[in-house]
């Protein structure tokens, strides 16, 4: 295997740190990690700080990058792969404040692309984690050939805006890119989302009841972070047809209802207090209460998720318990 | 008819000034115009400066809006319509410098939306001029249900990024919006594009020959600015189904080859020098050399363009002659 220089933004996040664990195993890889610990956690990556093939930079990518050490390093290295994972991942927070997705998703993409422009190789690959949220509340099974016209959250629209930027960037700079549109991702390093929220509420002894957002009938597909990383690595190595390549990744099952997640958590933590639901059918304005994914495109490439949505949820709940 | 307060950004541009001419005729309309004369021209709108139902602000919308007079005015008025036309319109310039489309298309959208947020009415409408360039070089007839996945210019990607932002903004703020994906627009107030470039080269007596970009076989649909404005006004008044409504507007004919445009200009200006073509099939990297539009959606609403692409070209050439 060749020596590869790989840049990972958002390296301390749930997916970034999972990816780092895989990439660092190959001693021939040299990995440059960036994070500013907005959502990422130092504890997710600190075990690698002393490894010789990893260098970490604490940089806020939502501002123009002016790190001399990184600039100097990139003068020596040409990048083989750029995994741009730094982004807001908490949809709800971005509904309340539109600046969050603009800065942490769109501007990070703008600045990192501009920064790496001179350090690309002819065969560089850029990998970006987008989302099913770019489609909005479409009420039918989502495949890659459906137009993304109705994003209803700042999260979804800034992911779509970043995809657009990456498309022209790839074309104009002769690099291949991969846009992975992720479903709901779960795993032990969660920082937000339904399992995270509910388990925190359950653990909080001051709360007199468990308040669920929405009527509990929201149903979405879930995948475990470790499988998401597996799948992205697989697809990146097996296909790059166009200058920009779009893939839905995740399960194609019917997903899991919030009700079921509540039931599993209540059982696991032996929760005895009252559970209250809201009347509305979505958790918050901008939430897509139901969607399902067609994953034909990745399946045809030979990748199939081994964990169902329910498996992924159960695995995460066990991990949280520890 | 009711009194309407209408904000038009990019009011001094080719389309903005054409729109202003229509809107201002109705005395009950009060029009707030914004431009910073980057591409727009004072001469396009100065005849209206003294009219009582028009107020003009020279503001660069690519920066945070801090105009006290405008803020004060908007405290009194609730906006019925916002026509956000301010944008870069010169695709080629944005290929050389990616900051142009980022600032003049994306950031103007970001700042104007954030600025008007408090001054919307329940029935406000937002109109945005997007482009066929969001699709990239798709090599088949473009309709509204095709996914916009392969933008190959910064112009196209920042238009798509703005569409995305407008989608979630409309949903979260309960306003209807219209996204009009324009074809190549021509007219007497041109500031760039093939007719503008070639006629300037022809008029420049120092040039020893006429250099055409590309091999001359690029073929695109063209519409005249006046018809584009007609069509947008028609559609806005006749349909608003979703929170965000997408329309291809323009002709659905096979377009006109650059060769034909050269022929018409040479004839009109009685040009006698040599004409040189390039070997490449597009005018520049990021140019989409051929595309065609399905306009079924506007036709079904009852609107049909009266000028063909060739008519629009001929009309523009006559106007330029004056």
Protein architecture, described:
2 copies of one chain form a homodimer. With 322 residues, chain A is α/β, with parallel strands linked by helices. Chain A folds into 2 domains: 4-185 and 224-248, NAD(P)-binding Rossmann-like Domain (Rossmann fold), CATH 3.40.50.720; 187-220 and 253-292 and 306-321, UDP-galactose 4-epimerase, domain 1 (Alpha-Beta Complex), CATH 3.90.25.10. Chain A is 37% helix and 20% strand. Chain A contains 10 helices and 13 strands. Chain A has helices spanning 14-25, 68-76, 91-96, 99-116, 154-172, 194-203, 225-238, 258-268, 296-301, 309-321, and strands at residues 4-9, 29-35, 54-58, 79-84, 120-131, 176-182, 184-186, 209-211, 219-220, 222-224, 244-248, 256-257, 274-276. In chain A, α4 (99-116) runs parallel beside α5 (154-172). The radius of gyration of chain A is 19 Å and the shape is globular. The model of chain A has no long low-confidence stretch (mean pLDDT 95). Chain A binds chain B through residues 95, 98, 102, 106, 110, 114, 134, 136, 144-154, 156-158, 160-162, 164-165, 167-169, 171-172, 242-244, 246, 285-286, and chain B through 95, 98, 102, 106, 110, 114, 134, 136, 144-154, 156-158, 160-162, 164-165, 167-169, 171-172, 242-244, 246, 285-286.
